[in-house]
């Protein structure tokens, strides 16, 4: 793990600003992904994101492959499985739900993991409040049961479970792989697994200029840019501060949905989102059990 110094760099953007930029980048990458889904579908979108992100990481990181044990490959394989399943489930939810709703529901996964690991009754109570927020943002109170998109809600919740598994497995991967080798190899494995599925469902459209351009934008906004920003910020931020900043992801997702996709959330949905954000700040602001980010900082053992 990172041993934060709590000091800010002398030059450049403040580490808090770096994390906020990373949060905005990730969520606008998600909004861009929602525009790719109609072109190539969920498997195609995930394949493009993983293939392009893997190529970028492999070119920069050049991970060591030789000399790995079976146990090493088993751990990074499980990590890749969690990463791939998380992306498939989340992109599937984006095809059915506003991005602000999907991200808020997904956030329950790492939030619950942090609360369980912290073993503080107050943190568990915060998760209960977050669950109430999810009920509001999913419109389960105001919408007839038959009209609820239960598949979309279920996919977002599944993505949250996979995100929690990703956090656990990223720590184990970081213990076996130096630097960014673990995340680079996991991305590559995920790309190999999803590419045939993407080709089977999207066909030649997967390689169209428009799809490739959007896919590259997603790879940069959702992976390369936020990974770099967070790695720089984590040298100077405590985990609690980092967790508070990442708790703003649902709000950033709602903003991206509004500006990029024209998605407007209702007042009850905004109240529900606020409950989840506040619960996340309470739990993660104390460093409650880990940082809920899908990033190489965790995977590298940093």
TrEMBL record:
Record SUPFAM superfamilies:
Multidrug resistance efflux transporter EmrE
Q: Where is the EamA domain?
A: 151-284
Q: Which InterPro entries match?
A: Diverse_Substrate_Transporter, EamA_dom, EmrE-like
Q: Which residues cross the membrane?
A: 12-34, 40-61, 73-91, 97-117, 124-145, 151-169, 178-199, 211-229, 241-261, 267-285
Localization in the cell: Cell membrane
Entry keyword annotation includes Transmembrane helix: yes
Q: Does the keyword Membrane apply?
A: yes
Q: Which Pfam families did the record assign?
A: EamA
Its placement in the membrane is given as: Multi-pass membrane protein
> Sorted alphabetically, which keywords does the UniProt record give?
Cell membrane, Membrane, Transmembrane, Transmembrane helix
Kindly give the PANTHER family that the UniProt entry links to this protein. INNER MEMBRANE PROTEIN YTFF (PTHR42920:SF11), OS03G0707200 PROTEIN-RELATED (PTHR42920)
The family assignment reads:
Belongs to the EamA transporter family.
What is the protein name stated in its UniProt record? DMT family transporter
The source organism is Ornithinimicrobium kibberense
């Amino acid at each position: 793990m990172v041993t934060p110094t709590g000091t800010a760099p002398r030059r450049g953007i403040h580490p808090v600003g770096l994390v906020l930029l990373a949060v905005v980048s990730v969520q606008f990458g998600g909004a861009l992904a929602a525009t790719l889904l109609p072109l190539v579908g969920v498997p195609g979108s995930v394949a493009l994101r993983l293939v392009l992100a893997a190529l970028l990481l492999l070119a920069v990181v050049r991970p060591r492959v030789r000399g790995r044990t079976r146990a090493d490959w088993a751990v990074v394989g499980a990590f890749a499985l969690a990463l791939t399943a998380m992306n498939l489930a989340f992109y599937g939810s984006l095809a059915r739900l506003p991005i602000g709703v999907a991200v808020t529901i997904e956030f329950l996964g790492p939030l619950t993991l942090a609360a369980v690991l912290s073993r503080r009754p107050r943190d568990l109570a915060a998760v209960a409040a977050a669950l109430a927020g999810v009920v509001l943002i999913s419109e389960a109170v105001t919408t007839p049961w038959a009209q609820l998109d239960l598949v979309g809600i279920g996919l977002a919740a599944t993505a949250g479970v996979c995100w929690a598994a990703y956090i656990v497995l990223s720590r184990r991967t970081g213990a076996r792989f130096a630097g960014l080798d673990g995340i680079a190899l996991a991305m590559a494995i995920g790309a190999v697994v999803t590419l045939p599925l993407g080709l089977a469902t999207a066909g030649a459209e997967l390689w169209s200029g428009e799809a490739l351009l959007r896919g590259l934008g997603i790879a940069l906004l959702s992976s390369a840019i936020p990974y770099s920003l967070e790695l720089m910020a984590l040298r100077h931020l405590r985990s609690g501060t980092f967790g508070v900043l990442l708790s703003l992801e649902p709000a950033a997702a709602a903003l991206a949905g509004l500006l990029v996709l024209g998605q407007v959330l209702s007042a009850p949905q905004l109240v529900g989102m606020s409950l989840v954000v506040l619960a996340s700040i309470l739990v993660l602001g104390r460093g409650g059990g880990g940082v809920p980010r899908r990033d190489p900082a965790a995977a590298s053992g940093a």
